[in-house]
């Protein structure tokens, strides 16, 4: 349990009035005020705890950590890779980050997402052709016909299924990579 989880749990604590039936309303009021004050002070103390930040690592590093832990590797074994690949290079260049991720947990780096609109010089004014995942999670060409004015022309870019990784785009549509535009979250 981390600090945020402890604070969230603390905020849900409530007094059980059944345990205090013999108190007068005045005594109960003082007790209730003290209880709320104790929650606030406890939250303040928890905020003071020195909790290490979880490092952010790429997905392939997270996968390696999980594989090593499943195989009951020690940290030194996980860091000692003989291969000359992206993973080994990353571990060598980021050994301290890797060790912190191993010890304290980690967050996975969010992959950049892109939208890909395919230019159609002969298309009608109210359609857009773009790459999007279908219901089977396969990338294919779609046509957006759901707008009636230029104001809504780019609404398809908000669809999660239209926001693809570089790998997803290049797998079957490498030629379309030239039209990729990075999604910027505001």
Key descriptive features of the protein:
7 helices; flat; alpha+beta; 4-stranded antiparallel beta sheet; 186 residues; two-stranded parallel ribbon; 3 domains; DUF1642 domain-containing protein; DUF1642
Cα shape: flat
Assign the structural class, choosing from mainly alpha, mainly beta, alpha/beta, alpha+beta, or little secondary structure.
Answer: alpha+beta
Q: Number of helical segments? A: 7
Give the proportion of residues in helices. 40-55%
Percent of residues in beta strands: 5-15%
For the sheet with most strands, the description reads: 4 strands, antiparallel
What sequence of helices (H) and strands (E) makes up the elements? HHEHHHHEEEEHE
In the residues, how many domains can be counted?
3
Mean pLDDT: 85
Counting DSSP E segments of at least 2 residues, the number of strands comes to 6
The largest beta-sheet arranges its strands as 5-4-3-6
């Amino acid at each position: 349990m981390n600090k945020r989880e402890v604070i969230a749990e603390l905020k849900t604590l409530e007094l059980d009035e059944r345990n205090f039936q013999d108190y007068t309303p005045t005594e109960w009021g003082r007790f209730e005020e003290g209880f709320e004050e104790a929650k606030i002070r406890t939250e303040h103390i928890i905020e003071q705890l020195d909790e290490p930040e979880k490092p952010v690592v790429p997905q392939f590093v997270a996968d390696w950590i999980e594989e090593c832990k499943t195989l009951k590797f020690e940290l030194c074994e996980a860091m000692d890779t003989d291969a000359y690949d992206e993973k080994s290079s990353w571990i060598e260049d980021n050994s301290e980050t890797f060790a912190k991720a191993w010890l304290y947990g980690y967050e996975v780096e969010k992959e950049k997402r892109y939208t890909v609109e395919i230019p159609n010089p002969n298309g009608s004014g109210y359609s857009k052709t773009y790459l999007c995942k279908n219901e089977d999670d396969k990338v294919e060409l779609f046509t957006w016909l759901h707008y009636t004015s230029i104001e809504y022309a780019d609404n398809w870019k908000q669809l999660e299924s239209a926001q693809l990784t570089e790998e997803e785009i290049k797998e079957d549509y490498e030629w379309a990579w030239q039209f990729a535009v990075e999604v910027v979250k505001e």
